[in-house]
Amino acid sequence: MGSTASTRNGTWRNWGGTVLARPAREVAPASVEELASAVRRAAEDGLPVKAVGTGHSFTSIAATDGVQIRPHLLTGIRDIDRAAGTVTVEAGTPLERLNTALAREGLSLTNMGDIMEQTVAGATSTGTHGTGRDSASVAAQIRGLELVTADGSVLTCSEKENPEVFAAARIGLGALGIVSAITFAVEPVFLLTAREEPMPLDRVLAEFDALHAENEHFEFYWFPHTGNTNTKRNNRSAGPERPVHPVRGWFEDEFLSNGVFQAANWVGRAAPATVPALARVSSRALSARTYTDIPYKVFTSPRRVRFVEMEYAVPREALVDTLRELKAMVDRSPLRVSFPVEVRTAPADDITLSTASGRDTAYIAVHMFRGTPYQGYFTAAERIFTAHEGRPHWGKINTRGVDYLSRVYPRFAEFTALRDRLDPERRFRNDYLRRVLGS
Predict the structure, then answer these.
(1) What pTM does this model have?
(2) CA geometry: angle 302, 170, 103, nearest 5 deg
(3) With contact defined as beta carbons under 8 Å apart, do 415 and 171 qualify?
């Protein structure tokens, strides 16, 4: 299955194995014109239409039993405008391809998430983000969008052109149309120094505000059943470049973080009682290290161990309380959690349904190894997150519906009104959108 979704015998399955779909037909447009005609044809046949990326969402946000638009021919860089500091790419371009192409041109995105298998449209439409004190999600770096709407017309939007569509469509959940191209802000490539080191959870929580304020990009991983974390601080650097040594990189990123971690998860899945002991070993396996490299080599890392994930965005000032409650819940429960909990931050942004819309945000992501029962853990975690007005990541497992979401998103009605205008017939409908946006 590699790093993306797969299709077998007409059944599409996402990366996490949580979603199956049987589309009536698949279309792989090679141009925006072909995409628009596929949407018009779906309308003639009375079928819903959805674009899929690489299937890295754990929710059924991209699933359809109608027309499935596959992205692999809609790739590549259309234009680099050095004067404006922008790059325009086709929607199906994987982030990895974008990052390597930009690096060759001496350019970079300002911030990115921690994996780069996703397509640019899939990543932005679901609100993919990394961590940042001043720089926000991948979608917040968008300067222009090209969108094929329900009647097959092509809409371009930016702060100046169709600004109300631009405000919403940067994280559009696939509900407003199908994104065909994206213009990102880029800057001259720079160096980041990463400092990774273990730190007791109590100290991280006590010093969280300072760690956040003093670093451009701060994140940490807490290992349930232990008081241990791994912290990571990324800051701009004047150099020189000091990449991770290939042998050490292979040992830590492939052997320990993927190979040994996979084996530990297999053992934990077969014998849950061993999980706390394995967690103590896992949390101590990675030693401190510092390295300096270009951004995508610092921000992103390979994720080969399959998992399922839930992530909620809480107000940043609520992070410490929320995490303490999560730890207390795990400690007193019979749960056995073999995957670390990931904590990141983002500044407030101005995107209608961004998880950081209008508020400084902390993200808490809980994971379970694929194939282990996750419902009990996720249900208990979700109860804690929602008590703090958490907003679920659109591409990760959650059970919330319109009643809750319209309460935690001040601009929710603005988004649904725009959807009514752009897609009155609900050409882009599916079960997920019905739950989170209403019918």
Answers:
(1) 0.94
(2) 45
(3) no
